[in-house]
Specification:
By secondary structure, this protein is an all-alpha fold. Helix content is 73%, strand content 0%.
Length: 120
């Protein structure tokens, strides 16, 4: 019992941070609106690529469509983190969003390479 209490207190003290209200007015700024629009488009593309992936599952193009699906997931997550950071829901390092976008670009390029290699 004492061990759990000590672990609980240590956890609370280790992750304590000042609480601030979210800046909901930031959603109307043009960069945040554009990020929101890109996130919506990425969601629709994610749905479409998932449908195509289910249709070609087990086929020769399934791995390339899996790469496209992962790329759209990375794009949607990066835009969500961009919006959440702009609205000050939580703070993340500034390097995370560009890193996710870089990974997305690499995954898309690899998916195109795999599709081109399969179709040629």
């Amino acid at each position: 019992m004492k061990k759990n209490l000590v672990i609980g207190i240590a956890t609370v003290l280790a992750i304590s941070e000042s609480a601030h209200a979210a800046n909901l007015a930031m959603i109307t700024s043009p960069p945040t609106l554009f990020s929101f629009f890109v996130m919506l488009v990425a969601g629709f593309c994610l749905f479409g690529s998932f449908q195509v992936f289910n249709q070609v599952r087990g086929g020769m193009l399934s791995k390339s469509w899996l790469m496209f699906l992962i790329g759209f997931i990375l794009l949607a997550v990066s835009q969500f983190l961009n919006i959440a950071t702009a609205m000050e829901f939580f703070i993340i390092p500034a390097m995370i969003v560009p890193l996710l976008l870089f990974l997305m670009t690499g995954v898309f390029a690899y998916g195109v390479y795999m599709a081109r290699r399969t179709l040629s």
